[in-house]
Amino acid sequence: MKMTKHYAVDGVLLFLLGTIAFLGFDDTYAGWTYLIAGVAGLLLGILIAFVGRGQPVVVLAVGLLAAFFVLGGAVALHGIGDLSFLPVPDTIGTLADNSVHGWKRLLTTLPPVDGGALLTIPYILGLVAGCLGFALAVRVKAALPPVLVAFALMAGVILLGVQDPSKTALLGALFGALAITWLCIRGMRARALAAAGGGRRISRTAIGAALCLGAAGLAFLAGPLLPGLAPERTVLRGEIEPPFNVGQYPSPLAGFRVYTKGYQTPEDDRRLYEKDLFTVSGLPEGTRIRVAAMDSYDGTVWRAANDSGETEGPEDTFQKISSTLRNPLADGKQVRGTITIGDDFGGVWVPLPTALTHISFDGPDSDSFRYNLATSTGVLPTALKPGDSYSFTASVTDENVSKKSEVWSGGSPIGDEAAQFQALAAEYAGGGDSPITNALAVAAKLKEEGTYTDGEPPNQQYPAGHSLRRLADFTAKGGQLAGNDEQYAALMAILANQVGVPARVVLGAVVGSDGVVQGKDMHAWVELRMSDGSWATLDWSEFMNTEKPPQQNAPQPEELVTGKVVPPPAPVRPPATSGDPLDESVNQKANSRPDGFTLPGWLVAVFTYVGIPVLLVAALCGAIIGAKIWRRHRRRTRGTPVARLSGGWRETLDHARDFGVRVPVGATRREQASVLATSPGMDGAPGLALLTDTTMFGETGPDDAEVAAFWEQVGTLRSSVSDSRTRWQRIRAAVNPLSLVPARLWRKR
Amino acid sequence: MTVTHEQARWFHETFEKLCDNVEKAVLGKRNVIRLVLTALLSEGHLLLEDYPGTGKTQLARALANTVQGSHARIQFTPDLLPSDVTGVTVYDQGKGAFEFHPGPIFHSIVLADEINRASPKTQSALLEVMEEGRVTVDGATREVGRPFMVIATQNPIEQAGTYRLPEAQLDRFLMKTSVGYPDQNATVELLMNSSVRDRATLVTPIITAPTVTQMAEMADQVYIDPAIVAYVSALIDESRRHKHIRLGASMRGCLALVRTAKVWALSEGRSQVLPDDVKALAEPVLCHRLILDPEAMFNGVTVEDVIGDLLTSVPAPTERVA
């Protein structure tokens, strides 16, 4: 009755602590399904540990695996497929896959995560924590170990969670109070001579509980005020490098000329000037659609950075997202819209408005979609195809630069690559009284002096590109500024950075009245970073005059008067649909070849999800059996006769432990033998214990012959024990690792 | 000089016969009888403390009867004088000389019934003889001979008109134990044979006093490994440091535990002491030597609880000293 009460208290407290820990996922997952999965796992784990409380650890492990695969579909995968709630092969495969790869997927998906197959993670955590925590509570006398499991669960949830979750103080205080309470209860239970002061237990419990509550309240109120607290919590999401490299894709700005009217070669029909790229519906006229934002300049091209370093966390990297997204830029009215890709647009860059909060794809493989919160741009590594469509909700914001704007003082997104334009920037700025004034002066100067050409005849001498060399030619003394959006936006962003205004280049379009975006609508503009960290738009019309063609008789800069015509670079082809090389699923799709020898898929799946685990389990069992054989050999052959005699008795005890016999710890051999004798096949234990003791404590002590004879009796008793058990019991005992754990660590029975 | 296996077997068989013999008088109390015989063969004294009518006197008389030797019973009362115990010197007018009339203490087995009813002065008269086996009366010292054993009884519930035994006196008793009420089967058998007024008379001597002395000397030769001696020492030491104990076991208690353990080992036919022997005897040997802290006593802690805690907390040796 007393033990049942202890079990109930331990189970309930572990369950409450686990539930509080799982609430830490509130900002990581969308909805409440994560809590259901976690709590279900917790309950199942506790149940398994309760039912198997008298069984070896290996039985608990098997129970956990069975519960995971048999009930995992119903708990964590319901709603994914028609039969996902049943342990059919697909379900088991998904569970196994997510138990290995789900952790990475969770950490590389921008929260809140929809759940889906990723609910496997809280389910696994709940199962393991519930089973381990309760098993330790039942089996270990010490107060701390099961409470540590609850703390480990909380730590795991924190590490897998988000950087700035809500309700941390409340959850932390509740968790701490409950954990201390559990610790006190177990501590009191474990204390010897419980009779002493037994009459005061209730009052001591009440005082202890009051102290716990007081401490929790104090921590809740004063904790946030304490000095030395880390400004941001450590989460794996912030440490992990997302397995995606956006730098592998060519800069879309470098291929800008594919959208222009001019230059065309016979072999290249990719000119998209008057072709429909995509159609936007649902968004108001004038909304800016962003294709790519380039925030890094390497001296050759402006490109999208993997991590622009704007934030400590992963928000400025391209991460997977679920259908919904917590976007800090989304303020104000939300609008819903749809974009349908036309026949002549493709590539990995996904046209999107600013401040996306929801997206759902109709057609393309949306699993690989990645979004960068800092640049408000998205990529689809499997590439968009004609006819693809996607709906979204976004908070369309567009802040334009004004002279009164305060700019960001936290540093420039580009390094010293473009330092050679420092003097030019100063010249164009004309010594304004603030960085923003200087930047606007630069823009005005470019617009005033610049001419516009796409390099069409007869202006072939003005090539594409925005490398340092091209921009140096572009701004050469004695020449004229001649180029298109590519050169002007690139130069404007560089010069703005030189005058102290962080700037980046954005490629996109402005939605017209009919929503159709053609190549001629594509432009590149510049965004300047404001003092609050936001980015304000500097429209292309501010630094570029598209109506002013270059003068053919204008003096040429010295570098270009050599008579040599620099050939324009080949148009940059849109990236192939190679996908994310680190994304396993995408790679499998992209690299699959029909020819050549490949193993059947089912065989690979069986080997991966059944063969490897079976091999691992077999290796573990082999290691356990090997360790026991080595231990027996060592006990029999190493050390003095006294040590070998003592080892023989310990071998007998360990053999009994392997069969699930509870051997009292710290008792004499004869006391232990009296317990062993109640188990099948161990009738000879008292005699063996007596022989051990009389030989051990006799006047002359044991000699080699006596020890050898004794070990024969040990072998006889072992055989007797084994013969009295079933084959399954013998196998279970052979792989039971319990006896490898020092006996003093286990509760006295 | 050690005990051979044959000697150990003879000791064991004799011990079992003695147990069987005494059990004729005290039914169903085999373990208590074993303890009493162990005290006898350890040449120590025994204190039986129990409620009235549990068979304390029967046990003492049966033990006295099983040994072919002299025995006497002293009923302790408040007006009992020391000379009533030790003896007195009287002037013989016929011989014209003082003549010593030995008291009941000059017997092999002395039953001191309700010892706590006598005055401290009379109780103290037992001190010298219990410790040294001799009596000094009127300046003359006289040996009481071997074997010599005092079996004292006392009633734990009647406190009026009694004098609690001082610690020094208690320490001279090798063991303290209680008989306890007989179980159901023993009770039925006693009732069925209620016509037997004095069951101690059923016990006839099966061993002589010199044999008892010989067995005690044999027990002295039993081997005890230093590891077990260290275990006994650790137990005693721990008893002195236990949080619920005001006064721990004395050195005399330590010696008593070793001596009785040797007899206990021989009684099981072994020529060496095991840790189990020490554990089996720890409670009867130590319980009257430990004095509880008043607060622990007030909280309901008993000496038996403390001894159980000592046996749990001090690990028994599993290997001999190399």
Automatic annotation (TrEMBL), chain A:
Transmembrane segments: 7-25, 31-51, 58-80, 116-136, 143-162, 168-185, 206-226, 602-627
Keywords: Membrane, Transmembrane, Transmembrane helix
Domain Protein-glutamine gamma-glutamyltransferase TgpA N-terminal positions: 15-396
Ranges for domain Transglutaminase-like: 423-539
Coiled coil ranges: none
Pfam families referenced in this protein's UniProt entry, alphabetically: TgpA_N, Transglut_core
InterPro entries per UniProt: Bact_TGase-like, Papain-like_cys_pep_sf, TgpA_N, Transglutaminase-like
Disordered as annotated region, ranges: 545-590
Top-rank taxon: Bacteria
Protein name (record): Transglutaminase-like domain-containing protein
From TrEMBL, chain B:
Keyword ATP-binding: yes
Domain annotation ChlI/MoxR AAA lid: ranges: 238-307
Name the UniProt record assigns to this protein: ATPase
Pfam family membership, one: AAA_3
Signal sequence segment: none
Domain ATPase AAA-3: 45-175
Keywords on record: ATP-binding, Nucleotide-binding
UniProt similarity note: Belongs to the MoxR family.
UniProt entry tagged with the keyword Nucleotide-binding: yes
UniProt GO molecular function: ATP binding; ATP hydrolysis activity
